[in-house]
Amino acid sequence: QIGYDNNSGTGTNFKISQYLETGTYYIKVAHHSTSGTGSYTLASQFTPDDYGDDRSTATSITSTSTTSGRIDGSRDVDYFEMSITSAGTLVVETTGSTDTVGILYNASGTQIGYDNNSGTDNNFKISKKVVAGTYYVRVSASSSGNYGLVYHVTADDHGDTKETATSITPTRTTSGNLETAGDEDWFKVVIPSAGRLVAETNGTTDTEGELYDVSGRNRIAYDDQDGVDNNFKISKFITTAGTYYVRVKHHSATETGPYSLVVHFDDHNNTQDGATPINPTSTTPGSFEIAGDEDWFKIIISRAGVLEVETTGRIDTNGILYDASGTQIASNENSGTGNNFKITQTVTARTYYVKVKHHSTSGTGDYSLVSRFTPSITTTSPESISDDHGNTKETATLIELNTTTQKSTTSGNIEVAADKDYFEINITRAGKLVIRTTGTTDTYGYLYDASGTQVASDDNSGFSNNNF
After folding, report:
1. Distance (Å, rounded) from C-alpha 77 to C-alpha 140?
2. Which residues, 6 or more positions from 280, have their beta carbon under 8 angstroms from its beta carbon?
3. Distance between the two ends of the chain, CA-based, in angstroms?
4. Which of 183, 222, 242, 445 is most buried, most CB within 10 Å of its CB?
5. What was the pLDDT predicted at 383?
6. Could you give the count of Cα atoms lying within 13 Å of 248 in the half-sphere of its Cβ?
7. How far apart are CA 322 and CA 331, in angstroms?
8. How do strand 184-191 and strand 242-250 relate by DSSP bridges?
9. What is the predicted pLDDT for the residue at 384?
10. Residue 451's pLDDT is what?
11. Would you say 42 and 35 are in contact if contact means Cβ atoms under 8 Å apart?
């Protein structure tokens, strides 16, 4: 038995309305009363199903119009075929008063989407990121009823993978939209040299950001809400030039929303701590990528002399020279060629920092930083003899331990009789310090603390040849 009725027809007559598949069926008619008799007329009307029940009989529909359909009972299902010509977000939904259920399939028949009542008035609504291809939607309901079926495809503004990433240029703002739940947008940016890459979003959407290396597989930075409001902000120093990738997604797996992505690249850090090391005599290119940018440089001077730093180029620069403690010791605006700065300063063996900035708070542009160091000459006889290292702790040569091995090797020369070479080493934590010389010269060594008090000495405890 697949259907039964007592008096749904006119008067006390029965009426059965049932969805049927292909086959032979039987109808049994009996009097309501076991003792009743009488004549009747049996009327039968068959209405073919409006749409096919599987993918092979699916009806092709377009996104330009609404397709009307009817579910004839809980066993009826309607299949529709959609041809999607480009990647984007597919939204397919029903309208009307019937409580519908929708299932989305790809071309091979694999289910990729399902919904019951996310649409209006218990209608289903499926939203799914798709690529070009053929898709199918299955419509069903728990009871008979009419419905309208409509779909549309919204092109995805940015690709979901590194292969489809949108190319962007630093300092420019790119608009984006997370059109569907789970949407993610990928961007690629070419970094010309070592420097700091800053990527952040603006807007009311709660975003998360990820930065990937040149392979697009290794995540090297992540942030959730270091930006304004609930926006992400990533700041990462890049050591190698190449193409890097930024991935943007919503903090919630179920929410959507628009945003703006801002990416800028700073070739040199804006702080003393991250200053770019340069040689005392060198030329280094620089750029003010955005308004208010500052570039810091670190110069290690190994002996007393004269340090000269200046910029060249067409932009108006200011320069400030600092010692290792961050105390300003010189500054200049336009003593160089054009509107470039130029600083000339007598220095000792120390670490120095140069800050370069644009004269205008809104200015940007490229420049070159030129550094020249001329060592002092020590006269010990009628002829001038160059001394490689200072003869006092005030003119000591600064030596720095390798950050990984905690070792350092420095060459020296006792140029004349009674010459002495002083070196300075900064110890950042407690431990054991070993100092020795190598070579054929018979050396003697003294160790002093910061006040100049001798704390150790040795003559020939070295490995060989009377080294200390």
Report:
1. 5
2. 299, 300, 301, 302, 307, 371, 372, 373
3. 108
4. 183
5. 42
6. 33
7. 9
8. antiparallel
9. 47
10. 86
11. no
- Per-residue model confidence (pLDDT) at position 378: 55
- Read off the DSSP letter of residue 394: G
Model pTM score = 0.54
Residue 30 backbone zone (phi > 0: left; psi -120 to 50: alpha; other: beta): beta
Give the count of beta carbons closer than 10 Å to the beta carbon of residue 168: 19
Query: Are 19 and 49 within 8 A, CB to CB?
Result: yes
* Beta partners for residue 151, in sequence order: 92
Please, which residues have CB within 8 angstroms of residue 139's CB and are 6 or more apart in sequence?
69, 71, 77, 78, 79, 80, 94, 100, 101, 102, 124, 147, 149
- DSSP classification of residue 58: P
Q: Are 178 and 203 in contact (CB under 8 A)?
A: no
d(CA 26, CA 20): 12
Within 10 A of 176 (CB to CB), how many other CB atoms are there? 21
Question: 212-238: string of b/e by CB count within 10 Å (b at 16+)?
Answer: bbbebeeeebebeeebeeebbbbeeeb
Here the tokens at position 467 are: 């080294």
pLDDT for residue 385: 57
CA distance to 147, 199, 250, per residue, from 96 (Å): 5, 45, 32
- Tell me how far apart the alpha carbons of residues 27 and 3 are, in angstroms, rounded to a whole number: 9
Rounded Cα gap, residues 327 and 321, in angstroms:
8
DSSP state of 389: S
In 3D space, the residue among 404, 308, 389, 388 whose CA is nearest the CA of residue 352 turns out to be 308
Spatial CB neighbours of 385, under 8 Å, sequence gap ≥ 6: 377, 378, 379, 415, 416
Q: Rounded distance, CA 152 to CA 147, Å? A: 17
Half-sphere exposure of 103 (CA within 13 A, CB side): 13
Sign for the CA dihedral angle at 128, 131, 132, 136 comes to negative
Q: Give me the residue label for tokens 């409006």.
A: 50
- Tokens coding 324: 């290792």
The pLDDT tens digits for 323-358 are: 999 999 999 999 999 999 999 999 998 999 999 999
Q: Give CA–CA dist 96/71, Å, rounded.
A: 12
**Nearest C-alpha neighbor of 123 from the set 91, 152, 154, 153:** 91
Residue pair 359/339 in contact by the 8 Å Cβ criterion: yes
* HSE, side-chain direction, 13 A CA sphere, residue 28: 6
